[in-house]
């Protein structure tokens, strides 16, 4: 039965790691003979070595229950259905957290919350001193978004635990479900706040001292109101050491159209592209749109337009389809039809899975900004790199485990890159990391039309569950 459960090359590794158990098991010749005779184990199915059925085919996801939970969770929203708005430390966020903690409790997980509200639900393994295997995602939602982004990776993870419990599986390494605080930057302008802090970001810790939201409420006032950190002194306790987990896996909707278009059930993420964001300001003299003749102008708006085109050029020069750049914000001052723009403001987002290539785009963009300012007689008053996170590669042993799991479950799968970033990007700093994608309708995300079928979600949960067994036993 053990062979049936792990019919892959991983079997060898698992056999090695479980040699002690198997040694005990094989040590009793009477039992071996009995089993050969009856075809059934003589032991109760209460440990890994005594799986009495083909555990993989017995994996059953409670799809109806899971859909109900997704729907119920979406009700904790500040905007009407089908949109979801759930902002960090808001009343709805607190209610939603309570809902998740309740489910974790029902799944028999022991719950811990840290000072910023990252929530951990732990299923103790039979070798609890080993580093745990973790999985999880986020439940915060930007204004007027959908009910699947992040949620599938939290409710799906809890259901994966239920699947494993029902199958009779016993984890060797402990398994942990993590709900990350504030993956979205909505309230304080900081994305992946919880996972960044878990990965031990001291600069972020310092900046939280002064950060306020649009209502001028400080981070710590908001956190305190939700029952979390009082002040900066509480934050170092959030940091986790490198090596705190032996593996981290996140289940997530693709947020892109590839899997749906190609009719593939599972995406296995090999790398997460990381963004850099830049703010640029140009200043010129402005003037009357009729009175100032063309040779006498120093138009800050045209400098911005030229830089936007330069960003596109530098991105295309990389020669890689994985390099992207966007000028998503371009503001002109004073913004009147008959006034030459005296100020312009651009915000540039550039991403790649290759850090060097992305940083080359930033450097070239900076050089262009300087040249454009000189040629047009405007001042480059700011060129500020707001963030420049390194991309992350998935761990090979985790992608292999995810591939093997998909194969054993007879699910079509392909290797792919995550072009959006996730808490996994930051978990990769402290743990080997991997991500499982499932298809979503037309790739829609961050809007009410966001949708993933419960069949696709259930497939993702099964792959996650089987991957967790492999990583837990390893
Ligand atoms: Zn997400």
Automatic annotation (TrEMBL):
**InterPro entries per UniProt:** Amidase_Cbmase (IPR010158), Bact_exopeptidase_dim_dom (IPR036264), Peptidase_M20 (IPR002933)
Q: Where is the signal peptide?
A: 1-23
Domain of life, per UniProt, equals Eukaryota
Record's keyword terms, sorted: Hydrolase, Manganese, Metal-binding, Purine metabolism, Signal
- Any one Pfam family match given in the protein's UniProt record, by short name: Peptidase_M20
Q: Which Gene3D superfamilies match?
A: 3.30.70.360, Zn peptidases
The protein's required cofactors: Mn(2+)
Q: How does it assemble?
A: Homodimer.
Q: What is this protein called?
A: Ureidoglycolate hydrolase
Q: What is the lineage of its organism?
A: Eukaryota, Viridiplantae, Streptophyta, Embryophyta, Tracheophyta
